[in-house]
Amino acid sequence: MSKRGRFITLEGGEGVGKTTNLAYVRRFLEAWGIEVVTTREPGGVAVAERLRELLVGKEPWLPEAELLLLFAARFHHVRELILPALAQGKWVVSDRFTDASYAYQGGGRELPWQRIRYLEDWLLAGLKPDLTLLLDAPVEVGLARARARGETNRFEAETQAFMQRVRRAYLSLWQQEPDRIKRIDASQPLLQVQLEIAGHLKALVERARG
User: Are the beta carbons of 12 and 134 closer than 8 angstroms?
Assistant: First the structure.
């Protein structure tokens, strides 16, 4: 296997099963003898976790301020955790990355995508995931699952119209980059979802091992 690790992200709206499937991805890769680092956004490192507390709390943020805070957290996350781990040959699996900003702040908050792209180009040193697993389900299904868990955070409490815009943005990203982003119907039974995930992971491992 080449020295550089691989970067995998899980994306999708609320209640699509990212946390459950992040654990599955880790187990799958470790079974292949791969050293895995799992992380999340916003968060992953100390400064970013403190920013996460602000971002997912009940206090409202103006859309532009929310976007800038997310990229501040992401900048620390990339520099302090993701890039060093990849350089050591570890595989990094993250619950969300920059696609989430296009979906939530670009789609949901309706900020211009070129502003997000500017921040991405400036701050992330060209880093993109090698594979993104887009867990997609109808908004009403995801929100019902998220709210069934109990207390909701600021994003889970958003309107259905907001989440519809988020979903449309994610599907647009998938259509633009189908080689990187793999859409999985998350309304299926979990076993079927994970069979599809396994197929995409196996293909990436085989490419990495050449």
Answer: yes
Domain locations in the chain as residue ranges? 7-209
151 pLDDT band, cuts 50/70/90, is low
How many angstroms separate the CA atoms of 164 and 124, rounded?
A: 28
What residues have CB less than 8 Å from 26, skipping those under 6 apart? 36, 38, 93
One-letter amino acid identity for 135? Answer: L
pTM of the complete model beyond 0.90: yes
Name the nearest CA neighbour of 45 among 71, 76, 85, 15. 76
Which phi and psi (to 5°) does residue 125 adopt? Answer: 55, 35
CA nearest to 16, candidates 104, 145, 163, 155: 145
User: 7-209 belongs to which CATH class?
Assistant: alpha beta
Fill in the amino acid letter for 121: D
Q: Catalogue the long-range contacts made by 28-34 (C-beta closer than 8 Å, 24 or more residues apart).
A: 28/197, 28/198, 28/201, 29/91, 29/93, 29/201, 29/205, 32/205, 34/91, 34/205
Per residue in 52-62, pLDDT (tens digit) is: 999 988 888 99
Contact 137, 186 (CB under 8 A): yes
| 176-187 residues labelled b (16+ CB within 10 A) or e (exposed) | eeeebbbbbebb
Instruction: Note whether 107 and 170 are within 8 A (CB).
Output: yes
